[in-house]
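[agent] plan:
  1. take the single chain provided in the ticket
  2. run structure prediction with default settings
  3. attach structure tokens to the ticket
  4. add a short note for the reviewer (M.T.)
[agent] executing step 1
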Amino acid sequence: MENIKEIISAYSAAFNTRLPEFFPIKTAPESRVVEAMKYSVLNGGKRLRPFLLNESAALFGLNFDQTLRTAVSLECLHSYSLIHDDLPAMDNDDLRRGKPTCHKAFDEATAILAGDGLLTYAFEILGSEKTHPSAEIRIKLIELLSTAAGAFNGMVAGQMLDLYAETAQSANTENLIKHIEEMKTGRLIRYACEAGAVLGIASAEEQQSLASYARKIGIAFQIADDILDVEGDASLVGKTLHKDIQQGKATFVSLYGLEEAKKMAGRHIDDAKETIAGAFGARAHRLQLLADFIISRKY
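[agent] step 2 finished; step 3 output follows
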């Protein structure tokens, strides 16, 4: 039996080894923003989204080097979202991945620019022929990532709803938190699978199976985060806990209770494993293991 923690750790180590080459720093005052970008991307992290992209592409025979640049682009965009999410005007967090958040390690203005820089850099990486020789593939990746990150049905919209949820007194709280999860947490998880399918030139049916799998593990991932905020170990989670309760924010745990939330996450994971195995058989073994890891993780 493969150990998914060891597999993810090995991927993360290989990924982290290659990351510095994407952030050359010149000796110039303006390079401070690149230092902040590099700090935020290299500042730990599980690398689950790049790993998910790599494993989705591996279903079609692609290897680490063939997916690396797309995965780095995704991690840049994810890190931008974390920098901005941590800002005083947003969630106002001092810790991220067990280290000072970007605006604490540098300053607020530099953090905003670093987030902007990473968002822009994500698309610069995708647009390069080094990422894929086919312009059609590159354009599709850019289209999907910009949609996932955007204000109409992506992370920006999800963040806006998340801020709204802190003070909302809605009779439709269940729909609200599910919509936040889908557009915020779940959107890049879905993109990771979509990008793997695009790189692998998947059929429409294969793309749909991966999207369905991603949707289910995305919900479970957010539920697991909500659970960790209540009963996690701060030294392992690497960020301030119990903030959702203190802010009165609507979450899966506040709506359903701790035990029912755990059961709900388990059902989504079972459905995800069944979906991916039905589409890809034994090739999807690691994606099944990843699904289990998502709700068993302690960080």
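[agent] step 4 note for reviewer: Strands lie at 95-96, 99-100.
[agent] ticket updated
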